[in-house]
Amino acid sequence: MRLSAIGDVCHAAAMVTRIQHHWPSAEITWVIGKVEYQLVKLMPNVRFIIFDKSQGKAAVEALKETVQGEVFDALLMMQVALRANLASRVIRAKTRIGFDWARSKELHWLFANKRVAAHQHAHVLEGFMDFADALGVPPSDPLQWNIPVSEEDAQWGEGQAQALGKYVVIAPAASKAERNWLPERYADIANYINDKGMSVVLCGGPGKLDRETADAVLGHNAKIAQDFTGKTSLHQLLMLLKHAEFVIAPDTGPAHMATTVDTPVVGLYAHSNPRRTGPYKNIHRVVSVYDDCILQQKGKPWTALPWGARAKGNDLMEKITLDAVIEKVDELFT
């Protein structure tokens, strides 16, 4: 059970892929959010149950009706939010596996009868892999994702790549405005990349903040070859990210989507610890001021604070300099 969000669903998909690789006959049911389902809906041999949290109690009743009469060998409770914990009560399972004590929040521990092993300073993806460990699934090396798309969407992506040539994607909008870099600096880095001979495109979802953020970047005379904000399905976006040379993004879903298709990511972080939530396999490319921000606010280094402690403030992303991002970009040009 993992309902949201896009980045976390990417991490969960890696865990599902691991189970399928080692236990190909396993019957897997995934309770998932309505939007997130659109990304993983073509994963083979997975039964999806869509949980539309906007429906409130009706969503729980629908889930209860769908699984009525079923008893699962194991329920992987991979979301600690109280809403998910309460909904999980309608699922009957012999073993209900939850997070360890340190990662249990919102009474999560009350709904589980088994816990994953403690894992200090685990990335979210590694935390999900702890559930596969608890089941006894062997580890997978290298890490793999199996998130198929339709042939039509694959061809759409190839068509965009042919039309654009070598290009870089900027996904400027996170789920909250405070986690976004300054639009003028997005424009500056776009122009820097353009001057080095690569096209730059924007991407994002259909929400108001995504549109406003993209418009703000464009308003600073950014050299943008094409603006895909709100114009792609999740599968088209995945293909756009796949064919990119690299991606620049704050703490947002496209950064993790790009990781699933092996596209390098320059992540921009100030509020959350990129060691926990950064684009997996690309932590070394992250530009982060989190360590300084959390030390200033808490008076202690992140190593002395609860794992996942967030820095707060509307201006923290301003601390990420253009030169620091250019340094990471230049590494990808060499």
UniProtKB/TrEMBL annotation:
GO terms for cellular component: cytosol. Pfam families: Glyco_transf_9 (PF01075). Keywords: Glycosyltransferase, Transferase. InterPro entries: Glyco_trans_9, LPS_LOS_Heptosyltrfase. It comes from the Bacteria. GO terms for biological process: lipopolysaccharide core region biosynthetic process. Gene3D superfamilies: Glycogen Phosphorylase B (3.40.50.2000). GO terms for molecular function: ADP-heptose-lipopolysaccharide heptosyltransferase activity. This is Glycosyl transferase. It comes from Alteromonas australica.
